Amino acid sequence: MFDVTAIRSDFPILNRTVYKRPLVYFDNGATTQKPKIVLDVLEKYYLENNSNIHRAVHHLSQQCTDAYEASRKTIQQYIGAKKVEEIVFTSGTTESINLVAFSFGEAFVNSGDEILISYLEHHSNIVPWQLMAERKGAVIKTIPMNEKGELVLDDLEKLLTKKTKIVTLGHVSNALGTINPVKQIIEKAHQKNIPVLVDGAQAVQHMKVDVQDLDADFYVFSGHKVFGPTGIGVLYGKEEWLENLPPYKGGGDMIKRVSFEKTTYADLPLKFEAGTTHYIGAIGLKVALDYVQSIGLNAISAYENELRLYLEKALNSIEEIKIYGTSEYKAATVSFGLKGAHPSDVGTLLNRLDIAVRTGSHCTQPLMEYYGIPGTVRASLAFYNTKEEIDYFVESLKRVIPMFS
Ligand SMILES: Cc1ncc(COP(=O)(O)O)c(C=O)c1O
């Protein structure tokens, strides 16, 4: 049974007040709050077990190494990867994408080649590819979008040319909440032997993801957006791709043998984990993913969908509000503009009413340019939010609206 009251009691921060009233936290797209069991495991490992992994024969190191590798196993199962070696720890989505853009670019991209990126992307799924394209003399092309905030796939066949080396797109848009038809796009790309990277930063906390079912070549996400610690993230890559990519960073733990003449690299996944990783963060991420699975991703999706539709219905009944992102296929994010108001002014006023929302371009400036707006107000929900919070949010918006007319 999905019991939101019990769930909320697992998150200490949700009990705090900001100015006068209890916090209403609708900024989950930026980062999610952490259940106490995640905080407890971080404290326990720093207090009692801390020691660097993979390096020593002593007890503490072995304990940390085992817990770190157990986390890798949990992630493998969480996203349905075939092998544990296909899971690489990074510092987050941004680093995972930079890793692939760099290493894939080094190995496979030449002058005149094309990189196909969706129009809905977060800057961290645009800029790393641009950096690589500049270095390699490659060209960035885009999959266009429509007014509803959906990708337009009519010309996809034509966009996937002989020169296209990789396609990269988000599973769920952070700015609008659109769930992209990634499986369909991957199938089309694979018909032409083109690999696809999926940015799952806004997906893995909302829905069951199965990388084998999607047939994604690379899938990336951040721990902090799925109720885990900051500074830890994941790169999934099919073994055959990861085997064929050169290392991204050099250092300890990613080598087999070093000499001044020639160095050989560690087997997967350590080839991509140079230096001391955020191993205690990885251990915390396991606890977060176990926690999410104990609630159940199907129950989470169903509850969040109900919340989102409830919020959209209420906002649609307010004349001054326009929702951006009206696809039928959406996760729990609602972005909107208020007539005559700059989004940041709306956010500032809502803050005084103890409501945390994100305002601005949400690191998706091309998307905002498409709509011809400076930004939106974004309410991004999580499974610990409630209809009562939405009622208070809508009531607060109604208080704020007259200030702009
Ligand atoms: C879709 C998407 N991709 C990438 C990122 C970057 O994530 P991080 O800052 O955790 O690396 C975000 C963060 O908001 C995001 O929403």
Provide key terms for this protein.
405 residues; alpha/beta; Aspartate Aminotransferase, domain 1; Aspartate Aminotransferase, domain 2; 2 domains; 7-stranded mixed sheet; 4-stranded antiparallel sheet; globular; binds pyridoxal-5'-phosphate
Write the layout of secondary structure elements.
Elements lengths: L3 H6 L14 E2 L10 H14 L9 H21 L7 E4 L2 H16 L5 E5 L8 H10 L2 E5 L12 H4 L4 E7 L11 H10 L4 E4 L11 H4 L3 E5 L10 E5 L1 H6 L10 E3 L6 E2 L13 H17 L1 H20 L4 E4 L8 E6 L4 H10 L2 E2 L1 E3 L4 H7 L4 E5 L6 H14 L5
Parallel strand pairs: 1-13, 3-4, 3-5, 5-6, 6-7
Antiparallel strand pairs: 2-8, 7-8, 9-10, 11-12, 12-15, 14-15
Helix pairs in contact: 2-10, 3-10, 4-5, 11-14
The structure holds pyridoxal-5'-phosphate (PLP).
Pyridoxal-5'-phosphate binds next to helix 4.
Instruction: Write out the CATH superfamily name of the largest domain.
Output: Type I PLP-dependent aspartate aminotransferase-like (Major domain)
- Major sheet strand order: 2-8-7-6-5-3-4
Briefly, what CATH class of the largest domain? Answer: Alpha Beta
Poorly predicted ranges (pLDDT <50, ≥5 residues)? Answer: none
The counted number of beta strands is 15
Major sheet description: 7 strands, mixed
Ligand inventory: pyridoxal-5'-phosphate
Tell me the β content.
15-25%
Described by the principal axes of the CA atoms, the overall outline is globular
- Count of the separate structural domains: 2
> What is the succession of H and E elements?
HEHHEHEHEHEHEHEEHEEHHEEHEEHEH
What CATH calls the topology of the largest domain is Aspartate Aminotransferase, domain 2
| Count, helices | 14
Helix content, binned percent? 25-40%
